[in-house]
Amino acid sequence: MTTLATGPAARAAKPATMAQALQRALRDAMAEDPSVHVLGEDVGTLGGVFRVTDGLAAEFGDDRCTDTPLAEAGILGTAVGMAMYGLRPVVEMQFDAFAYPSFEQLVSHVAKMRNRTGGAMPMPLTVRIPYGGGIGGVEHHSDSSEAYYMATPGLHVVTPATVEDAYGLLRASIASDDPVVFLEPKRLYWSKSPWSPEAPAAVEPVGRAVVRRPGSSATLITYGPSLPVCLEAAEAARAEGWDLEVVDLRSLVPFDDETVVRSVRRTGRAVVVHESTGFGGPGGEIAARVTERCFHHLEAPVLRVAGFDIPYPPPMQERHHLPGVDRVLDAVARLQWEAEN
Amino acid sequence: MKKSSTPVRDPAGKTRAPSGGADRASDAAGPVAPAWRVRTDPTPLLPDERPFRVLGTRAEAAADPALLLRLYAELVRGRRFNTQATALTRQGRLAVYPSSTGQEACEVAAAAVLAERDWLFPSYRDSLAVVARGVDPVEALTLLRGDRHTGYDPYRHRVAPLSTPLATQLPHAVGLAHAARLKGDDVVALALVGDGGTSEGDFHEAMNFAAVWQAPVVFLVQNNGFAISVPLSKQSAAPTLAHKAVGYGMPGRLVDGNDVAAVHTVLTEAVDRARGGGGPTLVEAVTYRVEAHTNADDATRYRDDDEVAAWRAYDPVRLLEGALRGRGLLDDDEVARVARDAEEMAARLRERMNAEPVLDPMDLFGQVYAERTSQLEEQAARLRAELDAAAGAPGQEEAR
Ligand SMILES: Cc1ncc(C[n+]2csc(CCOP(=O)(O)OP(=O)(O)O)c2C)c(N)n1
Predict the structure, then answer these.
(1) Which band of pLDDT confidence, cut at 50, 70 and 90, is reported for residue B30?
(2) Which of A188, A205, B240, B292, by CA, is between 20 and 30 Å from A124?
(3) pTM of the model
(4) Residue A224, Cβ neighbours under 10 Å: how many?
(5) So what's the ipTM on this one?
(6) Residues A239-286 pLDDT 10s
(7) Which of residues 295-354 of B touch A (CB under 8 A)?
């Protein structure tokens, strides 16, 4: 579990947003390692449309934080070349659906380069992608694309849900010698929590899940934008006599079977919660893994609460699509499996 | 995940230039050059050295007064539409609006040069061209209001859905124009794209297909100086965006995008050429986005007020108004009448946009497939039950 900093540094902590923590992670990584370069659309003068790269061009120059031409395949493709020559590019894709033009580079080259060169050519690059809905964006600004990336061997897929993790996971991703798809839940960009940039709290390394709320009667397995939903549902479920444990995956690839399995074996029941579509979505893989490892401990089938299997709807309709507290509670109620059958 | 400092092997040390041989071309006794497949078309690169203009030049006298007056009314309406839509964002009636104020001449001309059977392929900033083409303004704004992705029937006015991903509509325009020609229809497609969009791979592929297939398509690049915050100088090193046409083997034209008569003239030539079997044309209209990228953007971060002021002064509406007045084709009465018309259009738009759209959440499942899958049936039933439960216990949904 997350080790929270204590002592003077923690006392100095002021509320910070996830966007600020990400910005700080980029800044610290660039200051420490001259091979870290940031590139993307509007990342320089503007500081990115979400201001995550704010100030980097001013501090480190245009060559370290570069406004590129508007071409995602070009951005990621040139980042591959930069990585081949020893740099550590951190690429910003402006929105989830605008990363799709770069899919060829990601799937055919970024993900496979280490493997196809027998380890000779690693790809130490990070692709930051704001993802998910709930901010009232028009079409192509709210996709949950994690399943595409998860389905591509060779990529790490990471997604923070807290301010500390935003900093810690991004630093770790940039330091990694493997390519990381770093998914930023855009509706949490402005969520605040006390955080000290001078002494950032230590976080679990990439690949480890954490228990955000201990409980005994069922496990909610979730990540990114759905974590606050699950925490709220867990509070609400107390009234119904449910003591829910909430596991934040933090990293979808690699997947932390250990933490998840330990929790589900104890609680005997599990619900996977995410806003990405259910069919062919991450929840199917997670439910299968849990079932394979916990079959004899389960009191009920592993359930999934997901977005509908539809193209992301217009903003006025998105609340009907996004899984909220009610849908999570409804699934929890359906975990009374043995009583019903 | 392995974190280490494994240095990537010294890439510079490993590169070695291939050892160069003698210059064979100059070696008379060397092998004879094979039959090169190189096209050496002697066409001059570009006809225009500077953006082509009509207003204020000798060409103006030849322009049809009736057409100019019609374009004037359209420009005024267009400007009013932009200011109204921007106001609607402040009232929360539109989620977002990318204004085309300053670019109305391009928007209006693009719609005006097309025959009814032709097709328009707009980008996300082009609601105005869509409206000028005859689409109901409220239907044209549903994407930006957030109730529907595309509120109009594309076939009714021959307007493709407003494309949010940049440049992806360009290959569609080429394909549609190609299909029409295969069927023997003399239909032309006109596609709009921004200066930033010309950097996308889809732009390149569309241009290349269009030229190879000699498709009846016209590409209009509205070069408004910026792609969000990125100026043209960081977007392209080409002398002009019109020059890009040369490499594909199609004509490129450079036009003053604030001179509606000039844009109309150049686009008309391009459409006629396409319709006559002459193939595609790339038109670059040089203009300026005087408002911010969208209402959510802070343009002061990346550009000077002076630059904006200079472009505001070189205004497409005032430019035409001045020319028409100078020729005695327009007086105060007519200006007031056109303004009144535009005001009425804005009032109607305001009123209709203020009505809350009636939405059925069950529409989420309506048009995913021609026939609903069993999974979607199941999900639709679940949502219906949720909605019924919420209706039965009012306030319960909010309470959670
Ligand atoms: C493929 C893709 N990448 C990124 C974006 C995000 N985006 C929206 S508008 C814009 C700038 C567009 O500039 P330009 O093509 O010059 O058109 P303008 O906005 O000036 O009309 C960007 C980067 C997008 N819509 N699509």
Answers:
(1) confident
(2) A188
(3) 0.92
(4) 28
(5) 0.92
(6) 999 999 999 999 999 999 999 999 999 999 999 999 999 999 999 999
(7) 301-302
Please list the alpha-helical segments (H only) found in chain B: 11-14, 65-90, 104-112, 127-132, 137-140, 142-145, 154-157, 169-182, 201-213, 232-235, 244-248, 260-275, 305-313, 316-326, 332-354, 374-392, 396-399
Contacts (Cβ under 8 Å, ≥6 apart) of B105: B75, B257, B258, B259, B260, B263, B285, B287, B316, B320
* Residue B204 is a catalytic residue: no
Cβ of A69 and B142 within 8 Å? Answer: no
Q: Report the candidate in A229, A228, A238, A175 with the shortest Cα–Cα distance to residue A205.
A: A175
Token output for B231: 């100026």
A257 in reach of chain B (CB within 8 A): no
Q: Which residue, judged by its Cα, is nearest atom 11 of ligand 1? A: B227
Between the two ends of chain B, the Cα-to-Cα distance in Å is 39
Ligand 1 is surrounded, with C-beta below 6 A, by A 41, 70, 72, 94, 98, 101; B 125, 164-166, 194-197, 224, 226-228, 289, 293
Residue from the list B11, B228, B364 with its beta carbon closest to the beta carbon of A321: B364
B191 and B170 Cβ atoms separated by less than 8 Å: yes
3-state secondary structure of B356: coil
Query: Which of helix, strand or coil describes residue A276?
Result: strand
B302 is catalytic: yes
On chain A, the residues whose CB falls within 8 A of the CB of B400 are 236, 324-326
Q: Please tell me whether the peptide bond between B47 and the residue prior to it is cis, using omega within 30 degrees of 0.
A: no
Please report the pLDDT score of residue A74 as a whole number: 98
- Are residues B301 and A46, on separate chains, in Cβ contact within 8 Å? yes
pLDDT of B400 over the 50 cut: no
- Helix or strand holding residue B217 (H, E): strand B217-223
Dig out the tokens for B397 from the structure: 């949904």
A71 interfacial to chain B (CB closer than 8 Å): yes
Task: Please tell me if residue A239 touches chain B, with a CB cutoff of 8 Å.
Answer: no
Q: Up-side HSE of residue B72: CA atoms within 13 Å toward CB?
A: 24
Report how far residue B24's alpha carbon sits from residue B112's, in angstroms, rounded to the nearest whole number.
56
Q: Which amino acid is at A63?
A: D
Return the structure tokens found at A219: 């496990």
The C-alpha atoms of residue A241 and residue B19 are separated, in whole angstroms, by 79
Query: Which among B214, B213, B207, B208 is positioned nearest to B191, based on CA atoms?
Result: B207
DSSP conformation letters of A167-199: HHHHHHHHHBSS-EEEEEEGGGTT-EEEE-SSS
Q: Mark yes or no for CB contact B3/A70 under 8 Å.
A: no
Q: Does A250 touch chain B (CB under 8 A)?
A: no
